[in-house]
Design goal:
Length: about 1000
């Protein structure tokens, strides 16, 4: 019986199972479901969010909103309440729109968590299964491997070379070792004069310990940095140590992206200009024109409202949201908005090979044995390479993870068959992967490392029963694979073996990178006899490995060591010495079909693609050639070679050398490579899937994690998660990033152009001493009514043809640059303003008023003492100006669809949202002209038939002028 007074970490393994009501083969599915319903899901309580009303209030109190509140107050002071209410309505409309977008973004983030739930491996009904971490319950038996994020507090039952990253809990930056053995209780007693102060019958006090310091406990929030283990869950959800630390569950505030900061800065600059112009107009109107203070205030407010881009921030937010949703549909989930902008400037992609450039469907194709071939055998080996001519290659047929789809073509020579069986058994038992047969639909799925799964499939194709082998040769010890040793070792109880029988009871198998395994070998199993590994034999293995690698095969070596109890007691580095080399396993992971095209697109777009892999250099080079990553001249840089380069030399290599492939790279090498690229000014995107990739993912400008085979740590460190683990998806994401950046420039040009047409009437009033051709209410209907939907339609534009033929934009290039300002303010805006003022004067001229007459009646219009006839003409003239601006914006929305491409190439109907926006704005403008109640609010008047006809001419005039400008720029570019 387990002692009720002892903590879990002090109990033996049997007592742990007993106290938690479980067993070594885990809970039954029924019991797990019962506990889940009783104790709840393994989730932390949602952090306290700010109330919705406070978050809505934030939208009413930012810089631009405060400015408009002040403008509304000034309108009330000047006794124009309708203007005050109109200005304040701008704030409310903006706040509602922006709040809704933020609310939608939160919902999207919640959906993202559901798309990529954290998975854990547990034993249920005696079988290893993968379940969502929220379904973990007390008593579940978990299997932990390198890269796993621990989802609940658990007590270790077994562990092999286990190291945890506990930085979340303790701040300790280095991994800490963990072991499964019971921890002895530490007791404290008072001592005086060298004697204990315990009274009779009194028990010593138990010393208080921090659970994060107890060697046999693994706590939620920590990560497996190395090794593997089995542990029993004892606390979930809020009961974990992680859940009880209050500051760890507080809400993390999302930092604004660089794009949002840049847009906010633009708004502040334009707003400062607007306020300065408003003050200037007020001073000129009062002192130069002689307008009363009240009217001068109104006109100053008009200037401010005309120049402040009220719709810009919500339009940017929506454009980013559209881009993120499009990327999600293309299997790229954006975790940080800043990544959308950075994607548009990406110049280098450092990508893994396995699973990203290739299908991650490892299939064993050949077994290589250091045995002379039987020339009388009918199954002749492939004679393409030297290794295949002088040594025995055994072919393995079939593809994928279905063990019934192929077979191992064993030769008739029983000695070779015997060696091949040892190679297959050793490879399969020195693995931690599992094969599971799914029924709906019927297919085989690998759980664990795809390379190890391929070894299991090969053994099964040789009609070896994996379950029986595991029972017959139980594992006694494991030294897990790590990225520095490039090897893994297991010790098996080999006493019941009829194959390779020996008086020694145990046999260790070591598998890994062939040259690394070979370095630790002193013997070779050749012709059925254990022989000394001479230089010639050593060279024979190296040649075979290189020949297979040159064909793109991933090659693993297998070696063994006989022994007794001493094998279990030896240190890892001592155990992996004096090995007997057995053979090679060549497997192939075919490149993804779409990768060559994606790489060609990157090259056209001026983006360098660098392969960074842990694989052998010749294998990496062969795959790089197959997918078109490199040309004729290739330079393979190994991790060992990089270690001999200084930082300055490495920068020179990546800057001036072409056709680079980085092989046998450790996480430290990968991080150093990323930093070298950044140091020479490149914008770097890095892919990664392992826990050790997290530093490189964080260091990169854009970290890209794998959604299917990536670890939880890698996903959390990344900016973007690829749900299909496909390199081509990165290229699609870059194209979308460029498209989003282009679209923001498009609708900024559109919005700023109309601001010029709204500003000019007030400048003309001050300079020419005429009535303003627009009133403030009419400006508001343009900025927050007619302009919004067409601007949003520009935010939905697809990437332009040729987007991926352009070089990456400079990271330092501002969003609001000189070319955009000149085009919006000095070209498109001036055309709109000129046509608007022409329409204004034309209406007056049609009623017999010339320029001097208009100047003479201006004071009565401004003071609102003009007779009804003049008031009607003025209302019609301002209505005409308003309608012309709206009509010009119809031409402008087509003009802004591209900065360089003609609308005739893009097509007028390729973006249906634009026509929806145009239809909506004309329904709105016709309503305020024809509906009497709206006429009173916006001071409009009905237009005559000739005036309506003139509006039809305005869009082609502006669009035609823009087409001529684009044509001129294209011809000048061709000349240069």
């Amino acid at each position: 019986m387990a002692s009720l007074h002892q903590p879990l970490w002090a109990l033996s393994f049997e007592e742990v199972y007993e106290s938690l009501g479980t067993a070594a083969d885990g809970l039954s599915q029924i019991e797990a479901q019962s506990r889940l319903e009783k104790f709840g899901a393994n989730e932390l309580p949602e952090p306290a969010h700010r109330p919705l009303w406070l978050r809505f209030a934030d939208q009413l109190t930012h810089f631009m909103a405060l400015l408009l509140w002040i403008a509304g107050i000034l309108a009330f002071i000047s006794r124009t309440p309708e203007l005050g209410w109109a200005v304040w309505s701008v704030i409310w409309i903006n706040a509602i729109f922006s709040f809704w977008q933020e609310f939608q973004a939160e919902k999207a983030l919640s959906a993202l968590k559901k798309v990529l739930p954290m998975q854990v491996k547990v034993y249920r009904d005696g079988e290893l299964k993968q379940i969502p971490s929220r379904e973990l319950v007390r008593g579940d038996v978990m299997q932990l491997e390198e890269g796993d994020r621990i989802s609940a507090d658990a007590r270790l039952i077994s562990a092999e070379s286990l190291y945890l990253d506990v930085s979340v809990m303790t701040g300790e930056s280095l991994p800490v070792a963990r072991s499964p053995y019971p921890v002895r209780l530490r007791e404290t007693v008072s001592v005086r004069g060298g004697k204990t102060m315990l009274r009779q019958g009194e028990q010593p006090m138990q010393e208080k310990v921090n659970p994060s310091e107890i060697a046999n406990l693994v706590l939620a929030g920590s990560t497996v940095a190395a090794g593997r283990a089995v542990a029993v869950v004892y606390a979930t959800g809020a009961e974990t140590e992680f859940g009880q630390v209050a500051h760890l569950t507080t809400e993390v505030k999302r930092e604004p992206s660089t794009l949002e900061i840049q847009v906010s800065r633009i708004v502040r600059i334009i707003t400062a200009i607007a306020v300065s112009m408003g003050v200037l107009v007020f001073v000129l109107a009062y002192f130069l024109v002689g307008i009363e203070v009240k009217e001068s205030f109104i006109f100053a407010i008009g200037i401010i409202v005309a120049l402040v881009p009220e719709g810009l921030l919500p339009t940017v937010t929506l454009s980013l949201a559209i881009g993120v949703r499009r990327m999600a549909r293309k299997n790229a989930l954006v975790r940080r908005l800043s990544a959308v902008e950075s994607l548009s400037a990406t110049t280098v992609i450092c990508t893994d090979k396995t699973g990203t450039l290739t299908k991650n469907e490892m299939t064993v194709r050949y077994l290589w044995l250091p045995t002379q071939p039987d020339l009388n055998d009918n199954s002749e080996p492939n004679a393409e390479t030297n290794a295949q001519q002088t040594n025995r290659l055994i072919e393995v047929t079939g593809a994928g993870y279905d063990p019934t789809s192929g077979k191992v073509n064993m030769p008739s020579d029983s000695e070779i068959t015997w060696k091949a069986q040892i190679l297959l058994i050793g490879s399969a038992l020195c693995s931690n992967a599992r094969l599971v047969h799914l029924n709906a639909p019927s297919r085989w799925q690998e759980i664990g490392d795809p390379t190890e799964a391929a070894l299991l499939v090969a053994a099964a194709k040789a009609e070896l029963n994996l379950e029986n082998l595991q029972k017959k040769f139980p594992r006694l010890r494991e030294i897990p694979f790590d990225s520095r040793r490039l090897m893994m070792t297991v010790i098996l109880n080999w006493q019941s073996s009829e194959l390779w029988a020996d008086e020694l009871p145990n046999l260790a198998f070591t598998k890994g990178a062939p040259l690394e395994v070979l370095k630790h070998c002193h013997w070779i199993l050749r012709d059925g006899v254990q022989q000394e590994l001479t230089h010639d034999y050593w060279q024979e293995v190296v040649t075979a490995n290189d020949d297979l690698a040159k064909q793109g095969f991933r090659v693993l070596g297998l070696a063994a060591r006989r022994g007794g109890q001493e094998l279990i007691d030896l240190k890892a580095q001592e155990l992996e010495q004096n090995l007997i080399f057995i053979g090679l396993v060549a497997m192939f992971d075919p490149p993804r079909d779409e990768v060559p095209k994606a790489i060609a697109q990157c090259h056209q777009a001026g983006i360098k693609v660098t392969m960074v892999t842990g694989d052998y250099g010749l294998t990496a080079e062969a795959i790089a050639r197959q997918i078109g990553l490199v040309g004729d001249r290739v330079r393979v840089v190994t991790g060992e070679g990089m270690g001999h380069l200084s930082d300055a030399q490495l920068r020179q290599v990546v800057k001036y050398r072409h056709g680079l492939v980085f092989a046998r790279m450790s996480p430290e090498h990968k991080l150093r490579l990323v930093q070298a690229y950044k140091d020479i000014g490149e914008i770097v995107a890095v892919t990664g899937d392992g826990v050790n990739d997290a530093p490189a993912l964080r260091a990169a400008n854009i970290g890209v994690a794998m959604g299917q085979n990536g670890t939880d740590v890698a996903r959390e460190a990344a900016d973007i998660v690829l749900t299909d683990d496909n390199f081509a998806t990165i290229v699609v994401a870059i194209e979308q990033g460029r498209s989003v950046y282009q679209n923001i420039r498009k609708f900024m040009t559109y919005i700023l152009a109309s601001n010029v047409a709204e500003l000019v009437p007030f400048l003309a009033m001050v300079i020419l001493k005429i009535p303003p051709a627009l009133i403030i209410m009419q400006i508001l209907i343009v900025d927050l009514g007619t302009d919004i939907l067409p601007a949003l339609a520009l935010g939905t534009e697809r990437a332009e043809l040729g987007t991926m033929q352009l070089p990456p934009r400079a990271k330092s290039q501002p969003l609001l640059d000189r070319s955009l300002l000149l085009r919006a303010y000095c070209f498109l805006g001036l055309i709109e303003a000129a046509l608007g003022m022409l329409g204004f004067f034309w209406v007056w001229h049609s009623y017999g008023y010339d320029f001097k007459s208009l100047q003479s009646i201006a004071p009565s219009i401004l003071s609102r003492t003009a007779n009804p006839e003049i008031t009607f003409i003025y209302a019609q003239a301002t209505t005409m100006t308003l309608a012309i601006i709206v009509a010009c914006q119809d031409g402008n929305v087509f003009a802004c669809r591209s900065e360089q491409t003609s609308i005739f190439r893009l097509g007028f109907f390729s973006n249906p949202f634009i026509w929806l926006g145009i239809a909506t704005e004309w329904i709105l403008i016709i309503s305020i002209i024809e509906v009497s109640s709206l006429r009173q609010i916006f001071s409009t008047a009905p237009l005559t038939s000739w005036q309506w006809l003139f509006l039809l001419v305005c869009p082609p005039i502006l669009l035609g002028a823009e087409e001529l400008r684009k044509r001129f720029l294209r011809s000048r570019r061709r000349k240069h």
